[in-house]
Design goal:
The chain has 18 helices and no strands. With 401 residues, it is mostly helical. The chain has one domain: Up-down Bundle (Na+/H+ antiporter like fold), CATH 1.20.1530. α4 packs across α11 and α15 crosses α16. It is globular. The termini are far apart.
Length: 401
């Protein structure tokens, strides 16, 4: 019943926040902040109105669908024929230089901060906290005050880094699971990883390519109306995921690859699919942030100690800022622009969803403190980046020394 209460509360909050959504665009209050706060108020840390277990099947299902749609839609915006041009300049620096440095830097600091844990678990921590989330600084992406080049760089980076982070995350999970006996000796973890990382992309490429050609053909023959053009966003993403999982490939990687290799040439049809996916993705994302405040924070807050707080703070500052400055060196940007891009690397929806996958695959017991780092980092990011988005964006239209 509690799952239904959470869904009912989400529907009510979407109506309430939606009434003031345009006003909120120019305020320091973002959608994720609002939903996470209400979740905290209704959680055992607040008035204890709703109580849900972190391993709830309904929550797991919604989280999986959310991640599938986000990965598919983000990848679909980067058409292969435009991939080279989109990845030139700042996005290439952030994704191909900044992201790997962030992963390595975060791993080394985690090993120093939490020496009692296995290296694979600490690398997993750094990887889960490496993707950025433009939704937490939506005012930045939408602000006309921010130069277009910077907005596109932040948007492209956040759109692709979650998919790029997926393979190493699943490698870590497979190794950790093999050590706990969750992958049997008959299915050695090396074979498991190979199946996950090879079959997933292959199936995703096939589904995206064939599905796109079928949609283009049906549209050309005028067999397909606009409603079902939009709905194919869900069908292609879920088909790629389901086919991959049924053949022991990785469904999430398949969903990402199906979006990346979506072969729809008709621009109008492609935009309808993306618009529908973005709308549904935003709805599910807000639900996840509500669940984050409702379940994740109460579950893991007892494990927050000084070392957890230090790493969470470093994750949002030096672990992100230093690699960003390194990769943006020689880009021609002024120092404020470099700091702006490095600061708006918020940790959000991808980190939450990857944490849920980790909980499902390796369990919570024994990993509570490491998981609590992820939760605290995202919680701090939701408010720090949400509050600062508008004011920092407006600095671009003010004269700076």
């Amino acid at each position: 019943m509690h799952d239904h209460q959470a869904i009912l509360l989400t529907a009510l909050l979407i109506l309430i926040f939606g009434l003031f959504s345009k006003v909120a665009e120019n305020s320091p209050i973002s959608g994720p902040m609002f939903f996470a706060t209400i979740g905290l108020i209704c959680s055992p840390l607040g008035f204890d109105i709703i109580s849900i277990e972190i391993d709830s099947k309904a929550i797991k299902l919604i989280a999986e669908i959310t991640l599938i749609i986000i990965l598919f839609v983000d990848a679909s915006f980067i058409q292969l024929k435009h991939l080279k041009s989109r990845l030139q300049g700042l996005p290439a620096r952030l994704l191909l230089i900044g992201l790997p440095i962030t992963m390595v830097f975060g791993s080394f600091i985690a090993i120093y901060t939490f020496p009692q844990y296995s290296i694979w678990l600490l690398v997993l921590l750094a990887l889960i906290l490496s993707p950025t989330d433009a939704a937490l600084g939506q005012a930045v992406v939408n602000s006309k005050a921010v130069p277009l080049k910077i907005r596109e760089s932040i948007s492209t980076e956040s759109g692709l880094n979650d998919g790029i982070s997926l393979p190493p995350i699943f490698v870590c999970l497979a190794v950790i699971a093999s050590g706990t006996g969750q992958i049997s000796s008959e299915d050695h973890w090396l074979n498991f990883i190979a199946l996950q990382l090879i079959l997933g992309p292959i199936i995703g490429i096939l589904v995206g390519n064939v599905g796109g050609k079928l949609i283009d053909y049906a549209n050309k023959k005028q067999w397909m109306n606009e409603v079902f053009q939009r709905l194919t966003c869900l069908s292609i993403a879920i088909l790629a995921y389901s086919f991959a999982e049924s053949l022991h490939g990785n469904g999430f990687i398949a969903a990402f690859c199906s979006g990346l290799f979506l072969s729809i040439k008709n621009t109008d049809v492609r935009e309808r699919i993306q618009e529908f996916g973005e709308t549904e993705g935003q709805l599910l994302t807000l639900f996840v942030f509500l669940i984050f405040g409702l379940i994740f924070v109460p579950t893991f807050s007892p494990y927050w100690d000084l070392s957890v707080c230090i790493y969470a703070f470093l994750s949002l500052t030096i672990i992100r800022v230093l690699p960003a400055f390194i990769c943006l060196s020689g880009s021609g940007l002024d120092n404020y622009s470099k700091f702006f891009i490095s600061w708006f690397g918020p940790r959000g929806i991808a980190s939450i969803l990857y944490l849920l996958i980790a909980v499902d695959q390796i369990g919570v017991e024994g990993n509570e403190k490491i998981f609590s780092v992820i939760v605290l980092t995202v919680l701090m990011s939701v408010f720090a980046h949400g509050v600062s988005a508008v004011s920092m964006s407006n600095q671009f239209v003010k004269p700076r020394k």
